[in-house]
User: Fold this.
Amino acid sequence: MKKYIIAVGAVLLLAIGLVWLIMQKEPSSISGSREVAMAKDPVCGMEVSKKDSPSAVHMGKTFYFKSEACKARFNENPMKYMNN
Ligand SMILES: [Zn+2]
Assistant:
């Protein structure tokens, strides 16, 4: 009888672990929300967070950069990076 209880406990733990894993993955799989928060650095091509990154407005469009160095490179020659 004790073995049966241990087996049920193990299955329950496994099920809880699985649900937890699925819940951890859920936020990133919701399409759209990530796209709004993230932008592509036109200079180095890195994905950057719009909230925490330096930005520059050029011809009415806002660009976001991984670092101030990328922003400086963009400002030197915006046309070079705009169509990326
Ligand atoms: Zn960059």
Observations:
- Residues 32-84 form one domain.
- The pocket of zinc ion is lined by residues 41, 43-44, 46, 65-66, 70 (CB under 6 Å).
- The CA atoms of residues 14 and 55 lie 45 Å apart.
- The radius of gyration is 23 Å.
